[in-house]
Model the fold of this input.
Amino acid sequence: MAQITLGMWSTHGPILNTTPEEWMLRVINDKRIRHWFRNKEYSFEELAELRKHENFIEQFTLEERTRRHALCQAGVAGLARLWKEAKPDVAVIMGNDQRELIQPSMQPMFTVYHGADFWQAPMDETRAAKLPIGIKESEWAYRPDKPVVWPGLPDLAELVFSMAEQENFDFAASNAWPDTGDHHHVGTPHAFSWVIRRIMEDAAIPILPIITNTFFPPNQPTARRCFEMGKFIGKVIKAWDRDVRVAVIGSGGMSHFTIDEKFDVAFLQALEDRNSDFLCSIQQTTLMQGTSEMRNWIAAAGALFDTSLTGSTLDYVPCYRSEAGTGTAQGFVCWR
Ligand SMILES: [Fe+2]
Done:
């Protein structure tokens, strides 16, 4: 029977794929948008005033950014090394779409990919020209130089659909990525392609992508629903009549674009303690903007808490870029 032999949680954002100098390119956007922080929404100026006692300015000097950048690269390299050592046969990745595939006209809460394979390609020039500043610099980590096809896991997907009937889960099904979206991205969602490019280092094994709508109102699942979904997927893996080693990966987060170290540290502790009550009680208004991707971590925890795997946090690195405490917090966790 299939066995879960590896668990990983990792962030996947542009900060991991850009230079400390390039980190600052996104500040222009931070100043333009409103930010969620501890269940309330603020303008950039309001946030800077609220958090001025936290002295962020000292935490994003070029020297400090360079130091934190090196820690992030060490975290990614650590996961890639552990991946190579563990040699899993197949992977289930809990990730999200950020309008690479799914448009507001049809936006399921949970989608299981059941095609034989899925594609990724370099970005064409028209789309690349539309990429926001600070994003196009990081595209190399999500897209290879040439079009590629990565293997799916249709037989595990079929088992998910058939077992879901009895377990009260209703998944949307996708068997091909469309290339018609009007978003600047298209192809394999970044949450999945980053893992293939930077943890698997392009040596993709068969993957079951499970896409959660983490970002977009009005139908983001609750933390509890994500946990239960992951727990169900863990059950399906155990019932899968194949002699394979399975990796389960949660991709996304941590707190951004307002960094909340208190939340992130409590979350990492909850993983270590297998504290499902903590994970399931995280409020919808905490899981906003980029922090919403912690739903992928919660889903992976749902599957991994029911295994005998253990491990620890390789590193946690809050990568600030402004006096309002904006940026992205990076985290790397592995269970073996
Ligand atoms: Fe993301």
Q: What stands out?
A: DSSP finds ten helices and 13 strands in the chain.
